[in-house]
Structures are given as structure tokens and as C-alpha cells.
Amino acid sequence: MQVNRAEPGIQGLWWKSVCGLLMLFVIYGAFFIAKGAVNFVGTGDVARIIFFHVPVAIQCSLWFFVGAYYSIKVLMAKTATPQVASTDSKAATAMELGFVASILATVTGSVFAHVEWNSYWNWDPREISIVGLMLVYASYLVLRGAVAANASRRAQLSAVYAVVTVIPATFLIWVVPRIPALQSLHPPNVILDANGTSPTYKLVLWSSFISFTMLFVWLFQLRFRVLELTARRQAKRVQ
After folding, report:
1. Residue 181, φ and ψ in degrees, nearest 5
2. What's the half-sphere exposure (Cβ side, CA atoms, 13 Å) at 206?
3. What angle is formed at CA 143 by the lines to CA 142 and CA 149, rounded to 5 degrees?
4. 174-198 per-residue burial string, b: 16 or more CB within 10 A, e: under 16
5. How many whole angstroms from its chain centre is CA 167?
6. Domain locations in the chain?
7. d(Cα 227, Cα 96) in Å, to the nearest integer?
8. How many whole angstroms from its chain centre is CA 221?
9. For the chain, what percentages of helix, strand and coil (3-state, to nearest 5) are there?
10. Percentage of the chain modeled with pLDDT above 90
11. Would the pLDDT of 21 be above 70?
């Protein structure tokens, strides 16, 4: 019996279309629908950057834990198999996306800081934590590059690193920004404050959370496919 399968280019077309429409709505809504927020300079228009800054900041922490999850699966495997290699590629893809997200969060955060506090960098606790997380990501990628010649050893070492750094990464993400001794310049509870933002602001903000998550899932699929195709070509050359 012949099974008809969708072509790779049209798999998940419906949700990718939704992602594109949501992203267009967020871009338009950020400037023409949402009103400003309280606790920001001037009329609060600078708060519009939150539609782009906070979602990517969430992604840079989310994908670290996704990478750690796949790394645990790599370590649980007893022997090196094509499935383990595929799982290792998923872990690497997640960590690469997290690294990209951490860069975007740092850049957008610096733009916000310049407008809000007249300085691109203030060594704020949240700025310190994002830089620390970025270095953790960068170290993972450097490690993979250093042992690129041995795929099995690279998978094991990378997985161990990702799992071991879960605790310090969690500390950087959730603890450092909330240490009382380190006073943060970030306005507290702006997003969660019912009176801090308008209904239109909340609508665009939650749409941005959903659209950026969908976008990064899409990027995950694309990058993983590239790694799989590269691995297949290398395997053919060896044969």
C-alpha cells in the first residue's frame, strides 16, 4: 500500500500561516493598536519594545531546557545509533536557537535601556544574567566545534555539558535578577499589573508570545533538517 506524504515544504502549512499572520499583527499592533504602558518614561511608548524584547528573552531560557532534555535522552542511550545522532542534532539545534535568542534579547534590551535610562548598558542584574547565559550557550557551541571530528564523542560531551549547566543556567535565569541586594532598574510587574497596561497592549503582548514561540519552533525544524541533510551527505562520502 502506498502512503501519500506531504512534501517537506508544505508540512505544517496551516500553523506556519497562522504564525506569519500573528507576526504581522504584532508588528502592526505594536505601533498602531497598543497604547503605552505606565512606569515608563514619557507617554510610555518605549514599552512597545517589550513586544519584541520579552518574547525573545523567554525563548533564550526556554530553548536551553529543550536542549537539556534532548541531551538527557542522548546520555540515556546505551549505544550510538542513528536515532541518538538525530537526538543530538535536536539538542544542538535547541542550544543554537537559545544562543541566537540571547543575542536578540541583549540587543533589544540595550536599545530599551538607552531610551529609558540614557545608557545602553547599566550592569543591571537582568543584563548580567543574560550575558552569563549567553556565555554558557557560546561555550556549548565552542565545545561542539572542538570535537567536530568525532560525532559520537561530540554528542556525549555536549550532552554532559548541557545537563551539568542546567543548575547554573537556572540560577542565572531565575535567581540573579531577583536577588534583593542587586537592585534592578527594570520596572516591576509591568506585564502582570492589571492597571499597568491597556487591553489592547495585553492583546498584542500575548499575541507576540505565541507568534515568537511558533517562529522559533519553525526555525528549529528548519535548522534540524539542515543538520540531518548534512549528516547524510557526510555519511555518503564516508561510504
Report:
1. -65, -25
2. 7
3. 105
4. eebbeeeeeebebbeebbeeeebbb
5. 18
6. 15-33+48-233
7. 12
8. 14
9. 75, 0, 25
10. 53
11. yes
42 sits in the region (left: phi over 0; alpha: psi -120 to 50; else beta) called: left
- The pLDDT of residue 194 is above 70: no
What percent of the chain has a predicted confidence (pLDDT) above 70? 86
Q: Cell 491597556 identifies what position? A: 198
Element (H, E) at 11: none
Reading the block at residue 211, the C-alpha cell is 507568534
Give the residue from 230, 222, 210, 217 showing the smallest Cα distance to 23.
Answer: 210
Residue in 64, 87, 100 with CA at minimum distance from that of residue 227: 87
Query: What DSSP character marks residue 174?
Result: I
Q: How many residues does the chain have?
A: 239
Q: How many CB atoms lie within 10 A of CB 161?
A: 17
Tell me: the pLDDT tens digits for 155-164?
A: 999 999 999 9
Interval 112-132: pLDDT, tens:
888 888 888 888 888 888 889
Q: Dig out the grid coordinates for 121 from the structure.
A: 548598558
Sign of the alpha-carbon torsion through 173, 178, 183, 184: positive
Residue type, 169: A
Q: How far, in Å, CA of 209 to CA of 213, rounded?
A: 6
